[in-house]
Amino acid sequence: MAWGDYDNDGHLDFILTGDNGNAITMLYHQNADGTFSPAPFIFAPYRSSSVEWGDFDNDSYLDLLITGLADGYSRIYRNWGGTNFVEFMRFPAVYDGKVSWGDFNHDGKLDFAITGAGPYSQIYQNLGGTNFVILNTGLAQLYYGSVSWADFDRDGNVDLLLTGASNSDGGGAYVYRNGGTGRLGLAWSLRFAYEPGRWIDVDNDGWPDLAIQNWAYQTTYLYRNNRSGGFDPSISLPIGPMVVADFNNDGWSDLLIRNQVLQNTGSGIWTTVATSLPDLGTSTLVNNAFCGDFDNDGKLDLILSDSSSRTSLYRNTTEATNVAPIAPSGLWAVASRTNAVLSWSPSTDDHQTDGLTYNLRVGTRPDGFDVVSPMSAPNGFRRIVRAGNAGTLTSYTLTGLTPEKTYYWSVQAVDNSFAGSPFSSEQSFVAAAPMVNFLVRSVSTNIDLQTGLFYQQVVVTNVGAGLITGLRISAMNLPPGVLLVSATGTNASTAMPIVEFTNSLAPGGTITFTLAYYSSNRRPPVGIGVSVEPIVATSLNGGAGETVTLRRTFLRFDNKVAVEFDSLNGRMYAIQYSSDLSLWRQAQSLVSGNGARMIWVDAGPPDTDSLPSSKRFYRVILLTQ
C-alpha cells in the first residue's frame, strides 16, 4: 500500500496491492466527502509486492513503481495528468522485497533501488526520456527485507540501507555510502537473519539513526548514528510491522509496532500507548500499515490490512493538531556551468526544534518543476508521505545544468509528521556561460635564482552573455619539483592545484592574472598549461547572497582556523566550508557585521560537523537584510 495524491486535488488517495485469495492491484480515489472509490484504471495484479509513488518524469503528477509476484515483471506506470496510467517500463520482477525512489546523483531525475526474492538487489539510474539503466554497484543480493535512502553521513548524497536474507551467508543489514556518482561502498553492516529496517532520526539531530528488527530475538533494535560513519546499539523494543512517524504531534518520530504506538519523548525514553488497532502480529515479512493525513486535519491517520485480508482506515484522534513549519528564507545560489549549490537558512517549527527536512522545487520557468519535482502542491501540501528530497542539510548541489540557462527555485520545510511548509519566495540563478576563451600570453624565463620563483600571465576574455563573478584557474602539466605557490586549493577530481579569483568580468571584458610558481631546480619549466572555469555567484534579494572576498585564512596556535573578512555594519554573514570546493556546508552560527574587519574561528562541532583541517576551504556569504 502507499498514500499519494495522484490527481493533484489536494486529497491523499491510496494504492493497494496484495492477496485476498487472488493477486490484486487497486487504486482508490478519495472523494470530496472523504470516502474512497475504486479509480477506473487497470494495473497488473500483484501479490507479495511493494509499491511506491514518485514523479520520475518531473511533470508534477505521481507515477507508480510496482514489483512482486505477477507475470514475471516489475513495472513503472506513468501518470498522464491524473486521468490515466500507462505502462512505461518493464524490468525483472522480485517478490517479498521493497522498492524505493531516490535521486542518488542530484540531477533532478528520480532513480530507484529494488530488492527481493531472486535474490536480486539493484539500482536503476534514470537517464531521462525513456531510459533507465542498471548500475553495477555490487550490492548484497537479499530478499525478505527492505531498501530505503537517507543521507546518514550528511555529505549531501543519499546513502542506501539494504536489509534481508541471503542464500549465501544468512543476510543482514547493510548501509552503503554514496560517493555521488553511482559508486556505493559498504560503510556499516550487521549480521543477522532476514528482517526489515527503517531510517529514523530519534533525537532530531539531523543524523539518521536506524531501527532494525531481529525475528530470532523477537526484538526491534535502535542503533544511534555515531557521526563517524557507523551506528552504535541503543535500546530494544518489541517486534512487528513497523511505521515511523510523529503520531502525537510533539515533534519526535514515534514507532507504530503491531497495534501499539511507542511514543518518543526525545530523552531516550519510549512510552507505550495502547490503541484500538487490530494486532498485526509479529511477522516482519509483510509491511501492512501505512500512515497519512487523509482528512487534512493535522493528524496522521493509518490504513492497514489485518490477517483476514481486510483493509481498514483508522482516524487519528490525538488531541494535538500539527501546524506545518515556517517557510525557509535567506535563499542564495552559486552556479557554475553544470552545477549549482543552492542554500537557505534553517526553518522553524512551533513544536519541532530540530530535525526538519527540506524539499526543493527547481524549474526552467517561473513556478516550474521540470528539473526537480517537489511532489508537493504550490501551497506546500505534500502529495506523498515522505521526508523532503534535500534531507536535513540547508544546502543542495544540483548537477546536470545547461550553461547560460535560467533556473527558478524554491524550498519548503517538512516536519516529522510529513507536513510541508509553504514554499519560500522563488529565486532564480543563471548557469555559467559554456566556455571562457583564454590565452597564455607568456611564461617568464627570468627565474629568480635565489628564490626559484617565476611567473605566468593568463589573459581571460568573457565571451558569454552573463556576468562572471569568479574564476577558477587550474595549473596543468606541472613537472616534478614545480609548485603553484599562489594556489588556494586542489581540484578534487583532477588533483591539479587551483587558484580562485573573485574578480567580476562583464560580457566582452578581459582581465589579466599573474600566477606565481616555484621551481626547486631553478630551471624554467616548459609546457605548463592552465584550465579556466567561470564561477557565477548569483546575487539574490537585492544584493544578498553575494560571496564576500576573504582577506585571509590562517591556522591558529590551538589548531583552530581563523577566517578574516571586511564586514558591513548591521549586515549578517553566513560562513560556508568545503573539502573539495564543490559541496559546501554552512556553519550553524551567523556573523553580525560591525563595519570593520571580522574574524570568525572554526573550532569544529557543534558549529561545523567536524574539526577543521588543512584541506578545508571557506567562503563568506552576505545574507538578506
Q: What features would you describe in this structure?
A:
The protein has 625 residues and is mainly beta. The protein starts with a strand and ends with a strand. The model is unreliable at 536-544 (pLDDT under 50).
In short:
The protein is mainly β. The chain is built from no helices and 48 strands.
Kindly list the characteristics that best describe this protein.
single chain, mainly beta, seven-stranded antiparallel beta sheet, four-stranded antiparallel beta sheet, 47% strand
Low-pLDDT segments: 536-544
The total count of helices amounts to 0
Strand order, sheet with most strands: 31-29-28-41-36-39-38
Taking all Cα atoms into account, the compactness measure Rg is 26 Å
Structural class comes to: mainly beta
Topology, pairings included?
Layout (H helix, E strand, L loop, with lengths): L1 E3 L8 E7 L3 E8 L5 E3 L8 E8 L8 E7 L3 E7 L5 E8 L2 E8 L8 E7 L2 E9 L2 E4 L8 E8 L8 E7 L6 E7 L5 E8 L5 E4 L8 E6 L4 E7 L5 E7 L4 E4 L8 E4 L2 E5 L5 E5 L14 E4 L8 E5 L5 E4 L14 E7 L4 E6 L11 E7 L31 E4 L7 E9 L12 E4 L6 E7 L9 E9 L8 E7 L5 E3 L4 E2 L6 E5 L8 E10 L9 E10 L8 E2 L1 E6 L5 E6 L5 E7 L6 E8 L4 E6 L14 E6 L3
Antiparallel strand pairs: 1-2, 2-3, 3-4, 5-6, 6-7, 7-8, 9-10, 10-11, 11-12, 13-14, 14-15, 15-16, 17-18, 18-19, 19-20, 21-22, 22-23, 23-24, 25-26, 26-27, 28-29, 28-41, 29-31, 30-32, 32-33, 34-35, 35-40, 36-39, 36-41, 37-40, 38-39, 42-48, 43-44, 44-47, 45-46, 45-48
